[in-house]
Amino acid sequence: MFEALSDKLTGVFDRLRGRGALSEADVTEALREVRLALLDADVALPVVRDFIGKVRERAVGAEVLASVTPGQQVVKIVNDVMIEALGGEGAVPLNLNAPAPIPILLVGLQGSGKTTTAGKLALRLHERQRRRVLLASLDTQRPAAQLQLAQLAEQAQVPSLPIVAGQTPVQIAERAMEAGRREGYDVVILDTAGRLAIDEALMEEVRQVRAATSPVETLLVVDAMTGQDAVNTARAFNDAVGVTGIVMTRMDGDARGGAALSMRAITGAPIKLIGTGEKQDALDDFHPERVTGRILGQGDIVGLVERAAETIDQEEAEKLASKMMRGKFDLEDYASQLKQIGKMGSLSGILGMLPGVGKIKAQIEEANLDTAILKRQAAIISSMTPKERRAPEIIKASRKKRIAAGSGTSVQEVNKLLKQFDDMTTMMKRMSKLGQKGLMRQGLSALMPKGMVPNQRRPF
After folding, report:
1. Is the separation of the CB atoms in 148 and 115 below 8 Å?
2. In the chain, ranges of CATH 3.40.50.300 domains
3. Which of 239, 277, 285, 294 is most deeply packed, by most CB within 10 A?
4. What architecture is the 306-447 domain classified under in CATH?
């Protein structure tokens, strides 16, 4: 997401930083390139005009042109204006400050991901906020839509409203709210039907449901990959029924990202949640400052730390760290480490949250870093006997053939894994031998293999 936009803006800013003093003409030329990059990313034209106008107003002032680091000043101004365009500092939470049961209405076009989002939202409210959630499908248009939501509810371990054939969407919504009141639910999520395109029948149906249930939140679910069409959809729904928040799906896909930059300006409603993957727990808060950081190549360290905290077993991690420092790390521990990393998502996604990694993205992709490699390595270790995992040095040719056949890999891949593990254990033994003080005194060169330590006393 935002990859093309990020690459173009990073290029513009690198040229600005390299120039030293800036003239007004330099700023104007840079803003022209920023404007083209935003338009190419499918940002709505009125939003681009407003964005460039705000940046220009601040960037051509004496503060920037007379600054010691004018290039950095322009980057900061673009950063600040982009955060404003995306909704300001900090995530906007769902409004759950209302008497139970709280109705949450999901609206949007067919194929935008409403039903999947309903399941993800139910899991999020159930697991993270300990709310009693009831899911109800009002989609009588799409075949098996109600069954699909029932299956998602089962996966999220929350109940769904029983299906009664022949009922209208309004009748289903009223029955859902009655069940919510009667059975003591905190939240009732109402998943409405969509259409392939906006039509009056769809809008009238949503209006009737809204009138019958008085939802606390009316969330518009939009597919980020639809570009300008997403903006048109947002405008139409907001004009017809009023939108309190936006959920953008497929934010992990190969989209230009302009829709996200346009949404707040077009609807006045904040983006509250984003879908970041196919798994049911892949629904995150939308943080404008973090998204801006990723677009401008500054990474999202806070997001990375939060993801690690949510997925990594702290007790297990501490055990592994202790074994590493004692030099007692074996292949079973390595397999456990691979499993922990795999829980955090794709490696390219994790690396994308690190500052400056965008510049070496091509090299990363060439290295083929992906969770598939982790899975293959885990399969190789699973094909070993407990004795082999504890003492990898006993794995010779015949054992390697058996392990490769059992894991569906090649002997070369088994050799590669063993070499990586051997290098890792060698480094850990050096760390253990040096101790913390020795490592601080000698630096990273102490961990490098013999023959690779650079001569620190080269003549000038």
Report:
1. yes
2. 102-298
3. 294
4. Orthogonal Bundle (1.10)
- Tell me the C-alpha distance between 20 and 109, whole Å: 49
Nearest to 403 by CA among 393, 394, 411: 411
CA-to-CA distance for 177 and 404, rounded, in angstroms?
57
Q: Is 0.70 surpassed by the pTM of this model?
A: no
- The residue ranking higher by pLDDT, 352 or 409, is 409
User: Considering the domain 102-298, what is its CATH architecture?
Assistant: 3-Layer(aba) Sandwich (3.40)
pLDDT at residue 304 greater than cutoff 60: no
pLDDT bin (cut points 50, 70, 90) of residue 342 is low
Whether pLDDT at 151 is above 90:
yes
Cβ-based neighbours of 293, under 8 Å, separated by 6 or more: 79, 299, 300, 355
The pLDDT value given to residue 92 = 86
Query: In which band, very low, low, confident or very high, does the pLDDT at 63 lie, cut at 50, 70 and 90?
Result: low
pLDDT of residue 253: 61
User: Residue 446, exposed/middle/buried by CB under 10 A (0-12, 13-18, 19+)?
Assistant: middle
The greatest distance separating any two alpha carbons of the chain, rounded to the nearest whole angstrom, comes to 88
The reported pLDDT for the residue numbered 453 is 42
Closest CA to 104 of 216, 17, 232, 11: 216
Q: Where in the chain is the domain with CATH 1.10.260.30?
A: 306-447
Q: What is the mean pLDDT of residues 65-92?
A: 76
Nearest to 162 by CA among 141, 183, 193: 183
Q: What pLDDT does residue 208 have?
A: 93
81-109 average pLDDT score: 88
Residue range(s) in the chain whose domain bears CATH number 1.20.120.140: 3-86
Task: For tokens 């070369």, name the residue.
Answer: 412
Neighbours of 405 (CB within 10 A): 12
